[in-house]
Design goal:
This protein is an alpha/beta fold. It is 25% helix and 25% strand. Strand 2 and strand 3 form a beta hairpin. The N and C termini lie far apart (47 Å). The model has no long low-confidence stretch (mean pLDDT 94).
Amino acid sequence: MSKTRHVSETPATQFLRQHKVAFTEHPYDYVDHGGARESARQLGLDPHVVVKTLIMEDEAARPLVVVMHGDREVSTKNLARQTGAKKIAPCHPETAQRHSGYQVGGTSPFGTRKRMPIWVEATVLDIPVVYINGGRRGYLVGIDPRVLVDLLGAKPVNAALED
């Protein structure tokens, strides 16, 4: 019998199954502060196709989700300008966890505790399959990024910091 490591259900995988979204599972060994680059390294993937889910907030402390390439940083200035906010900043880990229901390092845009506006770096949508957190540290799911737009109403932005 093959020993594929099936990760137990998370709110994210429940959400994806409920909406009949096809996804592949990719467990890896979680490393503190390793981020998308570390998961990409372990799984033999390009960090550009491993996307991170970031919980940020605007000047009124309203939370929002940003999905960004694993090898890019978010320009909060560009993001604020494109979303109509005065200012956007990352949430403190405890605040991010309260909004999303996920532990930092295991945040998924699917099945969040609170419904939040979602912004996705536009070029993420050009990739046929992206690897995104499946709702637990050390667990990515491979999906078609259009699901972010179709299911979550994610809006494309150009908020990556230029190299």
